[in-house]
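Task card 7
Instruction: Convert sequence to structure tokens.
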Amino acid sequence: MSSPTLSTAATCERLVQASVARIWENVFDWQHLPSLHDTSFAACELVGMDAAGWRVALTSQPGAERLRQIVKLHANRPEHRYVVVTEEGTGAGSEIQVQMHPLSTDQTQVVITYHIAESDPERLAAIGQGFVTLYTRLWDEDEAMMIRREQTSHLPNPAPYDPIDLGPSDDLMDRLPLTVEAGGRPVRLALVDAKITAFSALCPHWLGPLDETPVEDGIVRCPWHDYRFDVRTGKSCDGRGLTLEAAPTVSLIEAKVWLTAP
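Output:
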């Protein structure tokens, strides 16, 4: 059976504030799809992976209907381009082609072209606009992660520090949750079990931001890859075995709250 003829539904360009290396890191990171993009995807399961890319079973969030697709990444690193092909499910045969043009160590021009098997001009334009709307949001979310990833990758190792005066306890309670810097690293303070609790605001997986999601029942979730930790102990509570950096001690001395290095 011959492959369907594909038409160009839309083309768009974007200046990404990240290097090509950082974009490739993001492209191969299929695990972030249902976590960082949880408004678009409900689940993503790895079907297979090789040097050229991955194949995943991708399930959308329920809308009019819940869609399940088999999607394949074909990467060409030397030429800075890749293609994502929908092999099965809704939109089977469609392709998203991405060409990257490195501009500097932290800027890349990206050209994205959407191809589908559709000949009707009106439907082609409508579907193309849908692609642009969806993938603009996905690239916005990815770019924010890549920029933050670049920033955290240059953080210094934890350094010793003198006790930090956080001020009167009553005033601090009104400011919680709060992120402060201690020893060159971000520390989050939150009220857990009626007690001010300090924990590392960096996920040990990719140094993801643990200060951007709420603490619920003592558990914090990394928005990048869904790693979860008990902030009271720093231990993993998702079975993946990672542990937060040692947390400073919170002490109340003469009605003031102090943060002491672990």
